[in-house]
Amino acid sequence: MNKVQRISLIAGVAGLALCLIGVIVNPAQFFRSYLWSWIFWLGLSIGCGQVLMLQFLITSRWGFLTRSILVSGLRVLPLMFLFVVPVIAGIPALYPFAMPDVVRESGALQWKAPYLNTTFWLVRVAAYFLIWWLIARLLCKWTDALDRTGDLEYVMKARALSGPGIIAYSLAMSFAAVDWAMALEPEWYSSIYPSFYLVGQALAAFALVIVALRYLAEDPPLSDHVTSKHFHDLGNLLFTFVILWAYLQTAQLIIIWAANLPREIIWYLNRTVGGWAWLTAALAVFHFFVPFFILLSRKAKQNARKLAVIAAFVFLMRLVDHFWLIAPAFYHDYEQGMVVSWLDFAAPVGLGGIWVAYFLQQLKSARLAPGHEFELEQSLQRA
Amino acid sequence: MSLHGLIAEFENSEELLHAARSARAEGYRRFEAYCPEPVEGLAEAMGLKDSGVAFAVLFAALIGAAIGYMLQYYALGLDYPINTGGRPLNSWPIFIVITFELAILFGGIAAFLAVLILSGLPRPYHPVFNVPGFERVSRDRFFLVIESADERFDEERTRRFLLSLGPREVSEVAD
Question: How is the beta sheet containing B142-147 ordered, strand by strand?
């Protein structure tokens, strides 16, 4: 773990250093690459929080063993809040609603101005951060106390918060997805769009949990508890969310295709011109069909090593999907085709390295053995 | 009266699991377990091979998907082509829904039929029905039958083996 942490920290610092060069050399591109990377890595912590709350609500076999992983992921959230600074600095370069020339030309933007303006945008971001942080703070405090004292009172507290908590997290993330990403193409809208992020974040969190559990299960204390059944459960959940992602993408495509309205199809046109068409097709194949057919097999889900490879691959596809959701918004030059900058690699690696290093730091001090409620569950089953 | 096999009666699923594992370790291959609830790990303990249901479902679902797609493509693209708002005749996003639904329908029917056929159902008569008290298998008793057709079956030895597993009772199953 120490070695992985050191490597991620070095990768993170190197990536951010490259980003710093990017700020000087090509600031416009830096802001674009940074935005989607930041949304992804912040979203990973939010996904961990969502799955953690789900785990508290349904008390599952896989949940007892993965709680410390999820809590560690959630603890990175405040650090990711700090990394919003470059996005705020980049508002005038990123968002059409903050470009006076663009707003003057666009009736839609003028009409939306009471909602889509820089001041209100900043107020809303603060509100999202506050909601996420408050709930995360309480969940972390209670799981800490639970691990220390074994008092099951804390499980009941966390469970009581988790129901409203999931709703609050999802609502805040839905609005955030509109503000951070959909506002890049402000004349286009889709009510399915925010759920791409919600489902994607949960999917990324499950992929992270599977990879982390595969390595943690090699040593005690988890090696005494983790069996192929747990990986089977987690594999099924990964499978479910891969399908859910494809379902939402297809639903939006069918609706927009059927209506065939110019202001709606622009989103797909931006993602199917030039090289973008290949990226779109590649996502359909590698984000859905490949993991789908592999995960159909029960053997693949029960084998920790195989499942971890698939999960890592899905995780990578989540990154590509974020690039695909956000980057095409900036290219309206159909002659030019797809542009992938070196900053589109430096920014995710930089933020990701920091995320993983901090996550592992939390995991090191976490109580990895299954929670106390697991022991209770076991004794209930025996009785 | 010919003998179908010997039956041992257990009170809970752990005993049945243990019995199935032991029977397999002992070298028995033709034995059957009966239980009132699904017992996790029983199929592995008995060494059951993949039943083929999953493959049948996948195969049927792919056929269903192909039929669903071709049906729409033939009707709207070949037999009576209609230009709907300039969309291509092979308007695939619209075809996805019915393609998917037919895949599910075919897969579902295949699963139903495959389970019936592969497990030999419907079957109105089975020798285990002759065992007194066997009806409790649908309530609170677990049974393991070692069939006389097994190569290693020997009435005396098999009876002793079953008794060593600590059942409530071991009795004969008349054919």
Answer: B31-34, B142-147, B3-10, B169-174
